[in-house]
Specification:
five-stranded antiparallel β-sheet; 3 domains; Helix Hairpins; Heat Shock Protein 90; Beta-Lactamase; alpha+beta; 452 residues
Length: 452
C-alpha cells in the first residue's frame, strides 16, 4: 500500500474511532435521559389516574351501568391499571401480584416506587403510587421496554452508520489531502528513481518554500551535486592517471623490447636500457603512490594529534638537505602548536620542499618559514627559481597539471594537488604567489584557540 493510501486508511480509522467514542457517549447520555423521560412519563400518567377513573365512572353512569377497572387504560405509550377501591396482598392482577408494599402505598404508609415487571412475557418499567382522589386506591403505570429498546436500537444504528460514513468520508478526504501534501515527496522519489535507472547525477529538484520537503529537496540536490563532483573527479583522475602512466610505461616496454632483440644482454647498451627501464619504473611507482595518497586524502579522515608545525617543517628540511646537495636550505620557524595528522602534513611540507628544490638553480636557497596569525598556523616554502607564469599560477594545485616548462622535469604532477588535499582535509588552504625572483607556496592550517 502506498503512503498516500496508508494516510487515508489511518485518517478513516481515526475518524471512525472518534465517531464511535462520541457515539458511545451519546448513547450513554441518551439512555440516561431516556430513563429519566420514561420515569417522568409514568409519574405524569399516574397523576391523571383520578381524573381518568372519574371519567370512566361518569361514562358508565350515563349508561346506567357499573364501572369496570379490570382492564388497563392506554395513555399514549403508558398503560394504567387502576384500583380505585384498593388492593389486597396476594391478589393477582393484570400487572402482577399485589404485595404488602402495594397495600402500604395505597394506604399512604409507603412512598411510591419504580420497578421492572414482566407480564405475559412482556417487560415493563412500572411506577406504583396512591391513586389521586381516593382513600386507599392504587394505580400502577407501566411503560413497555420494547419501545425503549426500539428507540435505543435506532440510535445505535444511526451512530454506527454515522461512524462508517464519517470513516469512509474522512479516509477519502485524507487520501486526497495526502496526495496533495505528498506530491513533493512523490517528485523526490521519482527523481531518485530516475537517477537509479539512468545513472545521471545531474538531476536536480525544483525547491520552493521552507518546509521539511523543501529541506529534503535541497539536501538531495546537494547530495547529487557532491556525487556528481566526486564521480567527475574520479573519472578525471582515472583519465589523467592513464595519460601520465602511458609515457613511462611505453618507455619501459620500449627498453624491454630493445633488450629482447639480438644480442640482448650482451649488447653494450644493455645497461643503459636497464637503467632507463628502472628509472621509468620508479616514475610509475611514484605516480601510483601519489594517486593512492591523493585518493586517501579525499576519503580517509585525518588522524588528528597535538603536534607542532615548526618541528614538522624542520624535520622535513633536515631530510631534504640530506638528499639535495645542489641547493642550500634556510629555516626560520617559530613554535606553532597544531592539532593535525602528522604524516599527512609532513608529506605536504615535503612536497612543497621537493617542488622548490626542483625549480631552484644550482647553489640557490630554499627558504622554509613558519608562523601563526588569525587563528591559523602556516608554513611557507620559497625558491629562487624562474617563477610561475601568471596564467599558470591558478592551476598549480590541480591534479596532474604541469606547465609546458615543467613537463621535461621528473614528477607525477600530483605533489601540489596532495598539498591542497591535505589542507582541505584539515579545513585549511594552500596558496601560491610568484614573481621573476621565485615562487612562494604556503600551507595554512587551523590552529588551536590558544595558539596565538
Amino acid at each position: 500500500m502506498t503512503l498516500r493510501g496508508r494516510v487515508g486508511v489511518l485518517a478513516g480509522v481515526a475518524a471512525s474511532v472518534i465517531a464511535a467514542a462520541i457515539g458511545v457517549g451519546v448513547c450513554a447520555l441518551f439512555v440516561s435521559q431516556q430513563a429519566a423521560t420514561v420515569d417522568g412519563t409514568l409519574v405524569r400518567a399516574a397523576a391523571q389516574s383520578g381524573a381518568i377513573a372519574q371519567a370512566i365512572k361518569s361514562k358508565v353512569a350515563d349508561q346506567a351501568g357499573q364501572p369496570v377497572f379490570s382492564a388497563p387504560v392506554s395513555l399514549r405509550d403508558a398503560e394504567l391499571q387502576l384500583f380505585p377501591d384498593g388492593v389486597t396482598a396476594g391478589a393477582g392482577t393484570t400487572v402482577g401480584t399485589m404485595t404488602d408494599a402495594d397495600v402500604a402505598v395505597a394506604e399512604a404508609r409507603k412512598d411510591p416506587y419504580f420497578s421492572d415487571v414482566t407480564i405475559d412475557g412482556r417487560s415493563f418499567r412500572a411506577f406504583t403510587t396512591k391513586m389521586t382522589g381516593t382513600d386507599h386506591g392504587l394505580v400502577r403505570a407501566a411503560y413497555p421496554y420494547a419501545t425503549i429498546t426500539a428507540d435505543r436500537r435506532r440510535l445505535v444504528s444511526a451512530c454506527a452508520a454515522l461512524a462508517v460514513l464519517l470513516g469512509v468520508g474522512t479516509g477519502l478526504l485524507g487520501r486526497a489531502l495526502a496526495g496533495r501534501t505528498l506530491a513533493p515527496v512523490a517528485r523526490v522519489t521519482a527523481a531518485f528513481d530516475r537517477v537509479r535507472r539512468t545513472g545521471r547525477l545531474d538531476e536536480r529538484l525544483a525547491v520552493s518554500g521552507s518546509d521539511e520537503v523543501a529541506e529534503m529537496s535541497r539536501a538531495m540536490n546537494e547530495m547529487l551535486a557532491a556525487l556528481e563532483a566526486s564521480t567527475l573527479a574520479q573519472k578525471q583522475l582515472v583519465a589523467d592517471a592513464s595519460h601520465e602512466l602511458r609515457t613511462p610505461l611505453t618507455s619501459v616496454l620500449t627498453n624491454l623490447d630493445l633488450l629482447d632483440e639480438q644480442p640482448g644482454l650482451a649488447d653494450p647498451k644493455a645497461p643503459l636500457y636497464v637503467d632507463r627501464a628502472r628509472e621509468q619504473a620508479g616514475q610509475l611507482r611514484r605516480i601510483v603512490d601519489d594517486v593512492i595518497d591523493l585518493a586517501r586524502q579525499g576519503h580517509v579522515a585525518p588522524t588528528l594529534v597535538p603536534t607542532r608545525l615548526d618541528l614538522l617543517a624542520r624535520r622535513v628540511a633536515t631530510q631534504a638537505a640530506a638528499r639535495a646537495d645542489s641547493v642550500r636550505f634556510a629555516v626560520r620557524t617559530v613554535p606553532c602548536p597544531l592539532v593535525a595528522d602528522e604524516d599527512a602534513v609532513s608529506r605536504a611540507i615535503a612536497n612543497l620542499v621537493d617542488n622548490a628544490v626542483a625549480w631552484s638553480p644550482p647553489g640557490g636557497t630554499v627558504t622554509i618559514e613558519s608562523g601563526h596569525a588569525d587563528g591559523h598556523a602556516w608554513v611557507a616554502v620559497t625558491d629562487e627559481g624562474p617563477g610561475i607564469p601568471a596564467h599558470d599560477l591558478p592551476h598549480v594545485f590541480e591534479r596532474f597539471y604541469r606547465s609546458p616548462e615543467a613537463r621535461p622535469k621528473p614528477g607525477s604532477g600530483l605533489g601540489l594537488a596532495i598539498v591542497a588535499a591535505v589542507a582541505a582535509a584539515h579545513g585549511g588552504a594552500a596558496t601560491a604567489s610568484s614573481d621573476a625572483g621565485g615562487t612562494r607556496l604556503v600551507l595554512s592550517l587551523p590552529a588551536p584557540p590558544d595558539a596565538d
